[in-house]
Amino acid sequence: MSALRYVVLHHTGIDQPHYDLMFERQPGSMLATVRCSNWPPESGTIFERIADHRTSYLDYEGAVSRNRGEVTRVESGTCTVEVDENAVLLTLSSGAQFRVPGLWQK
């Protein structure tokens, strides 16, 4: 299996700046996306599941359409994704691991 890719984008120029963690579930798939208030996340950081994003965000930095601020890449690389019925365990190439609760499709 090919390596799965991820990116962390800092979304600014909006009322509530945040970080978006986007990752492939399988090579070439839409990017599962969660947002959080800080990066890197600390114990107790809340991840909010938002809509999947296009893979073009893996390499994109700049203005977000319809005047919704801008994004800057703060981290990217490859990851492993382990899924169960309640959460996903992400292990990033940086060595960081995160358990993101919620319903995820396998």
Major pleated sheet: 8 strands, antiparallel
Q: Element order, helices and strands?
A: EEEEEEEE
Question: Structural class of the secondary elements?
Answer: mainly beta
Domain tally: 1
* Model regions low in confidence, pLDDT < 50 over at least 5 residues: none
User: What's the assembly state of these chains?
Assistant: single chain
Beta-strand residue fraction: over 45%
Number of alpha- plus pi-helical segments? 0
Tell me, rounded to a whole number, the average pLDDT: 91
Q: Give the strand tally.
A: 8
Helical residues, percent: under 10%
Distance between the termini: 15 Å
What's the Cα radius of gyration? Answer: 13 Å
Any overview of this molecule?
By secondary structure, the chain is an all-beta fold. It has one domain. It is built from no helices and eight strands. The protein has strands spanning about 5-10, 20-25, 30-35, 50-55, 60-65, 70-85, 85-90, 95-100. Strands 1, 2, 3, 4, 5, 6, 7 and 8 form an eight-stranded antiparallel beta sheet that branches. A hairpin with a 6-residue loop joins β2 and β3 (about 30-35).
